[in-house]
Design a protein that fits this description.
The chain has 155 residues and is mostly helical. It has 2 domains: 38 residues, no CATH class; 105 residues, Glucose-6-phosphate isomerase like protein, domain 1 (Rossmann fold). It contains 5 helices and 5 strands. The strands form 2 sheets. Strands 3-2-4 form a 3-stranded parallel beta sheet, with helices on one face. The chain has a two-stranded antiparallel ribbon with strand order 1-5. Strand 2, helix 4 and strand 3 form a beta-alpha-beta unit.
């Protein structure tokens, strides 16, 4: 069985993301910046669909229970988020629980990244070991690797 959830498909989320350009002004100091940042975070949190979060959480819990591999990936700042996801799962979720998620960040290994990029550029292929397919979960940012294009959460 295979299913997918793409948070980018949400019309309100896409519209909200397109409208956000923070910071959009210069601030007199750190306090003024923080006040506006806190307002922006509160506004952004209102765009989160609780049902979508529930679906994403269910996919992850199911993957933990099955011992499925999960891959996270991203470009630029999203690569850092992918690495952080791996850390959160390998340390945070395993600490004090009986869960043992298998999360691999495709952004953490320069050798793998350059091998995928070189192969993709010269042969138009992509990383088949991390391609979305039944039983695997791939979490990615809107900027996706060719192997994960079109999926943000796949099981």
């Amino acid at each position: 069985m295979s299913s997918s959830y793409d948070p980018q498909e949400s019309g309100s989320l896409a519209a909200a993301a397109a409208a956000v350009k923070f910071p959009d002004a210069r601030y007199a100091g750190a306090g003024a910046y923080f006040a506006e940042y806190a307002k922006e975070m509160a506004r952004a949190s209102e765009t989160i669909d609780p049902a979508a979060m529930e679906r994403a959480g269910s996919l992850l819990v199911d993957a933990y229970a099955r011992g499925a591999r999960m891959f996270s990936c991203g470009n630029g700042g999203s690569a850092a988020i992918a690495n952080h996801m791996q850390c959160d799962h390998l340390k945070g979720i395993r600490t004090g629980t009986d869960l043992a998620p298998q999360v691999l960040s495709l952004s953490t290994n320069v050798e793998v990244l350059t091998a995928i990029a070189t192969t993709s550029a010269t042969t138009k292929s992509s990383c088949t070991s991390c391609s979305p397919r039944p039983g695997r979960v791939t979490c990615s940012s809107p900027c996706r690797l060719p192997a994960a294009r079109g999926t943000s959460w796949t099981r």
